[in-house]
Amino acid sequence: MTAYTPSWLPQPNTAYAVEVARRIGFATVILLDTTDPAVSHIPVQVDPGDDERPLTLFFHVAAHNAIAERIDDDSRFLVVFRAVDGYISPTWYDHENVPTWNYAAVHMYGGAEPLTDSGLRAHLGALLDHHEPALEVREEFIEQYLPDIRGFRMTTPRVEPAFKLSQDKNRPSFDGALAGVRARQEGALADEMANLRRQLGDGG
Q1: What is the mean pLDDT of residues 137-161?
Q2: Which of 16, 104, 156, 166 could form a disulfide with 54 if both were Cys (CB 3.0 to 4.6 A apart)?
Q3: Across-strand partners of 103?
Q4: Which residues in 81-98 are b (16+ Cβ under 10 Å) and which e?
């Protein structure tokens, strides 16, 4: 499976896409099956790795979730991290064009394996540290809920950026779109547009 990304849209490098996914921290996780795919919308911990550790995703689902019940050694997953999106008016360009929609997403593909109890605890701890480091949760409380969830690890997934943020437009049209989005007070979308433009080497 491959996402459709128009050839005229330059995409960021893998490291940039992984960092966007890590920042989002929430994804649609799809257990691919030709007859009945299982889908969950869940927090996903992204460990970008380093020279000695590979990129790894960690996630957990309810024990009775179809993903937990049906996963096996041959299972394949698609994980979709969706960032911001928004309408783009053709009146913002310096030439005649059509209305369109900007968006930013990162797709990751691969197999997954179950986490051990210690791995699941470490994953839950990492999620808490990331989202609310000052929160203290009693170990007994965590132990109470561990039997109800299953944790998984996806190592070295294939990464596909899927960014459509006016990066194919000339500078006047891009600046017009950026100004239009900011005037609509959609700062997060404007930031993603400017960040991608810089990453691709054309300023922001």
Answers
A1: 93
A2: 156
A3: 85, 164
A4: bbbbbbebeeebbeeeee
